[in-house]
Design goal:
heterodimer, A: alpha+beta, five-stranded antiparallel β-sheet, B: 151 residues, elongated
């Protein structure tokens, strides 16, 4: 069970710098051996300014950028060991480049808590993080649904 | 070519039709090492992805892969097809847990071609399934696909 009265609240903003080394590391971990993610020279040869953003690189912004997220979820009363990832969505609004400094603000958009048998519960939360760059331009929106068994 | 080109074009609007299939992508079997590496890369250190004892304790029966790793496989499919900077929207719904040694194949199909505010966009559906056809994640994408200019 979590505190549903907090639906609509935003968590404190966080900052993350976009680093090509982290993008490269993510591509390697996924097993994508496209050279555009491995060297600036290969990326430029393919027409990019720099190593481009791997499609799921926003996950780096979330976990490495928002080091308080786990605490934020604990504060809501969630059983963080029971978190399952239900859905993820990225909306790419403007280019994001190596060296950009992004500010992310995560909002608890919606949430439900259901009681199950034997005192168990299931919480479903919709989180939305809006990222703006150093020029104040919104460049990315990440939405996720998490399911928490308590 | 100018150096400030942000969007190298991999795919033109004219290259696809509704129902055109994306070239499938089959990944190597999931290994424990890959999950450890992915944890470090992504920053998601939830131990249920890396510590077999936790997996057993919470009833998932051993470690399970990060859902976002599977989305990453689908990201590779789209990166290969349209290129990373052409993507406008990419979403997935996670359906089932992925375990060690699972072999994930990503597939997709074009579902629409539209023109919005002078931009030509293609949309499609995608999915990731294991060696038994069990779907782990499915979703959709929208990407910019400019007109092929006639010379």
């Amino acid at each position: 069970m979590f505190d549903t009265s907090r639906v609509g609240e935003s968590f404190p903003p966080f900052k993350i710098q976009v680093e090509r080394g982290k993008i490269r590391e993510l591509a390697i971990a996924v097993g994508d051996d496209n050279p555009i993610y491995q060297s600036v020279e290969a990326a430029q040869a393919a027409g990019y300014n720099d190593i481009p953003l791997f499609p799921t690189a926003p996950t780096i912004f979330q976990f490495w950028g928002n080091t308080q997220m786990l605490k934020n979820l604990l504060d809501l009363g969630l059983n963080v060991m029971g978190i399952l990832h239900g859905e993820e969505e990225f909306e790419y609004l403007a280019p994001i480049q190596n060296g950009d400094t992004l500010t992310g603000t995560t909002k608890l958009r919606d949430g439900k808590s259901r009681k199950g048998p034997n005192g168990s519960s299931m919480d479903i939360l919709n989180l939305e993080t809006s990222y703006s760059n150093q020029h104040g331009q919104v460049v990315l929106i990440a939405r996720e649904t998490i399911i928490v068994r308590g | 070519m100018t150096t400030n080109t942000q969007i190298p074009v991999k795919l033109y609007f004219e290259d696809v039709e509704v129902d055109t299939e994306l070239p499938p992508l089959t990944k190597s079997p999931i290994t424990h090492l890959q999950l450890v590496r992915y944890a470090g890369a992504s920053g998601d250190f939830n131990p249920l992805h890396t510590d077999p004892k936790i997996g057993e304790a919470i009833g998932t029966g051993g470690i399970i892969a990060h859902g976002m790793l599977i989305m990453g496989f689908l990201g590779q499919l789209l990166s290969d097809y349209v290129g990373p900077t052409a993507l406008r929207k990419f979403d997935v719904r996670f359906k089932n847990m992925t375990r060690l040694d699972d072999v994930i194949t990503c597939t997709g199909k074009i579902t629409s071609k539209t023109e919005v505010d002078g931009e030509t966009l293609i949309s499609g559906k995608i999915q990731a399934a294991d060696q038994n056809g069990d779907v782990k994640a499915s979703g959709t994408f929208t990407a910019l696909a400019p007109h092929r200019k006639e010379n």
